[in-house]
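Q: I'm a student working through a structural biology exercise. My instructor gave each of us a protein and asked us to get a predicted structure, then write a short paragraph describing it. Mine is Cytochrome b5 domain-containing protein 1. I'm not confident about reading structure output yet, so if you can add a plain explanation after the C-alpha cells, that would really help. Here is the sequence I was given:
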Amino acid sequence: MPTRGLVAGPNMRYFQRRYFNMAEVAMHNTADDLWVTYLGNVYNLTSLAKEYKGSVLMKPILEAAGQDISHWFDRSTGDIRTHIDPLTGCLKYYTPRGRFVHIPPQLPRSDWANDFGQPWWRRSEYEVGLLSYKTRLIRIINTLTSQEQTLEVGALETMWEILHRYLPYNAHAASYTWKFNGVNLDMDKTLEQNGIADEDQEFDQLNMDPELYTPALLLYFNDDLTEL
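A: Happy to help. First, here is the predicted structure for Cytochrome b5 domain-containing protein 1. I'll explain a few features afterward.
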C-alpha cells in the first residue's frame, strides 16, 4: 500500500515537524500532557511528571505547564539561574517559585539523592522541537472542494511542515500540487523562499489589518486518493 501521494517527498507517517508555536504548547498544560518551552526549544515533560507524580517538587513545573520558562535559566550557561543564598552565603540555584525536581535542598538532607544523572533540563530526550518566535497566517484553498482553512505557521517552516499541519483537515494533502499565484511551490523551501513575503510589519506601519491580506495557497488535485 502506498504511504503518500503523487507529490514526491517525505513519508508523512513518520514525518516530524521541527517547529511549534506557543498556542500549540499552551494546549499541553496538564500533568498527563505537560509541555514547556525554554531557551528556544520545546520540551515534553509528561514522563517526568509521571515519574514524580504526587511529589511536591513537581508543583512549580506543573504550575508552568504549557508556558515558557526561559526566565528560570541563565542564557549564557543554559543552566538554572543562581544567586547567593542569604542563609548559607553559598551559591545556590534561584527558584523563587519553590524548589523543584533535581534542585538540591538548601541544607544537607538524608533523603536527598543525586544519583539521577543529568537534571531534566539538560536531557535531550524531552526535546520535541523548536519554538517559532515569528508566525504568520496563511489560507489554504482546496480547488477541488472549495474548502478553505486558515493556519498559523512558523516563518521558518518548510512547505512540507506546513503540509503536515494541514493533514488533520485533508488527509490526502500530499496528493495535491501546491501553488501560489499560479506557480508550483518548492516543498523543501519556506514561504519566504517561495516568494511569499511576510508583510505583517508593513501592514502594521500602515495601520492595516494583516489578516485581511492573508496569502492564499491553492491546492490542485493530482487524481490520487492516498491517505496519510
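A: Here are two points you could use in your paragraph. The chain has two domains: 22-131, 134-221. Residues 22-131 form a domain with the Flavocytochrome B2; Chain A, domain 1 fold (CATH 3.10.120). It's a good idea to check both against the output above yourself.
Q: Great, thank you!
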